[in-house]
Amino acid sequence: MRSARTIKPVDMLAVIAVAIVIVVAILGHNDSPAVDEFARFRAAQRALPERSAEVSVALVGDVMLSRDVARKITEHGNPDYPFLKAGEYLKTADIVFGNLESPIVPGRDIATHEMVFRADPGAEAALKRAGFSVLSLANNHVLDFGEQGLRQTMQRLDEAGIAGAGAGLSEHDAYAPAYVERAGMTFAFLAFCENALMPRGADERTRERTSARIASLDHKKMAAAVGVAKKRADVVIVSMHAGVEYRDDPAATQTEFARAAVDAGADLVVGHHPHVVQRIERYKGKYILCSLGNFIFDQMWSRETREGLIAKAVFNNNGVERIELAPVFIEDFAQPKMVEAEQAGAILRRCEFEMGERRGFIWNADSKRFTTVGRKVVYGAQKRETGGHKSVKSLEADLNNDGRLERYDLDDGLVSVYEDRERIWRTPATWWVDDFALADANGDGVIDINMSVWKAGSFGTTKPFWIRENDWSIKNHFFVFGFRDGRIKPVWQSSALDAPNREFLFDDVDGDGRQELVVVEGEYSDEDRSSGRYVAVWRWDEWGFFNEWRSEAGRYRNLSVEKEGESKRIAVDAQARD
């Protein structure tokens, strides 16, 4: 957010007077060049496509909470122990999915080398605290404790607010989609288990002994289930428990079923059961993650069985925008830890897929600098619009502390504030607001309206001494408005920025207890307004925002801040796609 000069909020009346003069100068002179230029600018902005809402889904492989994993939980006296090192990353996703390899049912201790699994009641709460939203039950261990074990597992997951897919007490239930809604998008999850892996009691020969059913890799039934899901869902994700254990390459059954799922309409296919990471495939513009390997398992006897992937797929209205791949390595029989550098590279090479990079910047408290880390990304097949997008959003908050929520809407470049359905404030028609955030920008403990604003740069007869001549072009500004004395008033306003904001957000990225302004900065000459050239961090002092750090030059987009261990990670896509 480079600025030629910040406006010091010493005399707010003077600031307001300047704003009034500008509006009068623009609106009062129809022959002003600013009128025509802003009209053209506004028309161009209106023609941009709306920025699609994005929903992220974190996908992991096998989750087994029995045997030595259970012993480690008991040893540490903490049911959350397996999730302590990767759980924060899972929580950065809107939806979390995995394959639960152990029914949740009380019972005897399970010995180290037994092939019958169970997890103690309470595991469902730990899974929920780790962020899990949906779990596949279509696997070869879900009926290890029979129909009652499945029944209790489903009941406990339901009470914890976790959906189950792929198994049930009837065939209809086993093939029924599990639906999750986020940000106006509906996701359907379907899970299937390879016929040869079906546990005893789920096959045709013994159906009379139990009502429990598991969805099988029957192509016809799968296609029918996908068809049902697509009638309601925007995104259909198919999970398959299939393949040969410890094999590097996917088996024919995996490939054939996954491609059939895409043919039927699945948007993403994810695999588990081989206990090792296998390749990623793009088929007809959709992605198949053949096997994500182990996430939580006690198979410490080989490097490959201790490796896994968290695949965070980001969806918008066009499908998969990107899939961020976070390698993990299991420690102490039970605990996946996120890894970087050479160890991450070895795991990612198993994917056999060309990837881009999502670059991260993490504050180092010792050096007082941001260090750069990378995470590999598979980009969606959709074509990226280079003209940018217009934002449409709606938030609710009680910023005037009257006990009633106001609604803050951004539409058609205008921010409007409503209380009890009555509009109480709106930005001027001579501004185009790119985006806004409700945050404590200046550290005074008050949440304000922070806006990226495009407007004419002329100051008329009140031109500040540091401006040589009036500039009628449209420039980007950063404005802070908030409730003061019961009314929405300007708190701080920048002059025209040297570099326009492409994206911005507020977060405490250095852990000092105060929020910083994190920005992707572009150039006014850039035709590609969907990306910027620098990532920058700005800090408020008593006079305004001042730059604390700026990245090396590049092409950056899709800004976010995520928890990374005990630190925060500024994350951006670091290269453009064709």
What does this protein structure show overall?
- The chain is of the alpha+beta class.
- The protein folds into 2 domains: 12-52 and 384-573, no CATH class; 55-353, Metallo-dependent phosphatases (Purple Acid Phosphatase, chain A, domain 2, 4-Layer Sandwich).
- It is 19% helix and 36% strand.
- The strands form 6 sheets. Strands 1, 2, 3, 4, 13, 14, 15, 16, 17, 18, 31 and 32 form a 12-stranded mixed β-sheet that branches. A 6-stranded mixed β-sheet has the order 6-7-9-10-12-11.
- A hairpin with a 2-residue loop joins strand 11 (280-283) and strand 12.
- It is elongated.
- Residues 3-31 and 201-208 have low confidence and may be disordered.
Strand-helix topology:
Blueprint lengths: L11 H16 L5 H15 L7 E9 L3 H10 L10 H4 L4 E6 L22 H7 L4 E3 L9 H15 L2 E3 L1 E2 L2 H4 L3 E5 L2 E9 L19 E2 L4 H14 L2 E7 L10 H13 L3 E5 L7 E4 L2 E4 L4 E3 L10 E10 L2 E13 L3 E4 L2 H9 L6 E9 L4 E11 L13 E5 L8 E6 L2 E6 L2 E5 L5 E8 L8 E9 L17 E11 L2 E7 L7 E7 L8 E6 L12 E7 L4 E6 L6 E8 L2 E7 L5
Helix pairs in contact: 8-9
